[in-house]
Prior knowledge:
Blueprint lengths: L9 E5 L4 H12 L3 E6 L18 E5 L12 E4 L6 H4 L3 H22 L3 E6 L26 H21 L3 E6 L2 E2 L10 H10 L4 E4 L5 E3 L1 E2 H13 L8 E3 L4 E3 H12 L5 E4 L14 H7 L7 H25 L1
Parallel strand pairs: 1-2, 1-4, 2-3, 4-5, 5-6, 6-11, 7-10, 8-13
Antiparallel strand pairs: 9-12
Amino acid sequence: MPQHLHHGRRALVTGGAGFLGSHLIDRLLDRGRDVICVDNLFTGSKRNLDHLRGDPRVEFIRHDVCQPLHVEVDEVWNLACPASPVHYQHDPVATTKTSVIGAINLLGLAKRLKCPIFQASTSEVYGDPFVHPQPESYWGNVNPVGIRSCYDEGKRCAETLFFDYHRQHGLDIKVARIFNTYGPRMNERDGRVVSNFIVQALRGEDITIYGDGQQTRSFCYVDDLVDGFLALMDAGPDVHGPVNLGNPNEFTIRELAERVLAKVGGRSRLVKLPLPQDDPMQRQPDISLARERLGWEPRIQLDEGLDRTIAYFRDVIDQAASRSAMR
């Protein structure tokens, strides 16, 4: 195990109360880390950390990364930013600030502490791609002034900052480009396609498909993604990324909806709505680099991952119904 990941060290996880952040914290604790979880709870939820309540190894700080943070840690994991269109378009200026100013503050912290820093970037840096599947060498096709630009360009600028800090200050950076990820602890109201379809089907509502449903996505189960995070941080000081992390198996949105319906049952209908502006038509990672440099590839395929995620959302909906009945 690399020196910076040995037992007894402290990790800072920003966005730690979110979907991905909370799963990462679980895995870091399994590795013997103490963890400082930082989140402003704009999209994160303390419910994602309920199972860690009272654990002396975890400290929660409610804080916005747009403000400087003064802590002493051995590694920094930056996952702070709304990641679904519903949330990042709610306050686009704040979204860009989180990506850019947050990166500056955390890079400054890592520089002072001389510790490695991980950046959760995104496949959205590729925009609506002309190259398919997308390798890390592809520079992308991004609208800089559209309604998604606050997220897409914010993450692109954050990558620029990370690599400039590496070149200028010798900082040990790790940049992961995350493709569509799903699993337990997703927010049922985040507007992402997997959670949307599952929740709508479980509630017997119409399943809303944007456009004709022929646009494609590649869906990675959260456990596999976190394996990729750890493999990247474990990699030697010559591996900085950016590295694509995602499942390369590609499905149309309509195929996903039909699989969810088949698993949940019920009488939900597929209903088409207009395609949102700048919504990419194709999204599939080329993970050759991750296979070669990290020895990583996903293990959990869509059917198994959907079963686990449906079970989670069924429990969430049942608990909400029980609480409502008790009022």
